[in-house]
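User: hey, got a sec? need NodB homology domain-containing protein folded
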Amino acid sequence: MRAVVSIHDVMPETLAPVREQLSLLAHHDIAPVTLLVVPGRDWSPDGLARLREWRARGHVLAGHGWHHRATAVRGCYHRLHAAVLSRQAAEHLALDAAGIRALVRRCRTWFADNDLGRPALYVPPAWALGPIRPTGLADLGFRYLETLTAVHDLRTGRRRRLPVIGFEADTPARAAALGALDAVFGRWPGPVRIALHPRDHRLRLRGTLLRRLAAVRDPLDYDGLMAGADSA
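Assistant: Yep! Here you go:
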């Protein structure tokens, strides 16, 4: 299997399970791993040093919202999205286009301000872009934008559609739904995205997760993934 592997929700309070997952991925010779960092949390000097260490080891940092929590629920779509998928994580859905742009700009600036480089990838929390088109973020410094259905190259306007396999099975209903999706997308003929959340390896689909990682033979980064991008 060809796959790009990411760990979502990298925050001060998730650094311990993220470290466990990186060890697990190293056991399966999966590298580099893309780490989706939430800047607006209470980062300590030690936490920032850990991010720098992971980056120095070859892992890739990416922007992932600001607080990773919506300040309000706006409208029926957001309410449905929260109930089915995102709970309270989809902070873009609580903002207008100007607010989204300000959040993304602030996210990118945080990395440079903390000696963490200039990440190429931005992923909205819960992959929920909100009321703005990908082109509306093209001038903010990120090269790639990942949504639920595709990865967008903001420089060229191209995109690549590919499935996401996830394992955040903290309820029986989520375990059933994610297990069914894994059964389908595990046979996908092209590359897939494997999206881990920090405690997935402790949850109901641990066995499925381990089997899927063992099947990865060709780990990709986002540059390699987008080399075969579809036309927008």
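Quick note: The chain is about 35% helix and 15% strand. Let me know if you need anything else on NodB homology domain-containing protein.
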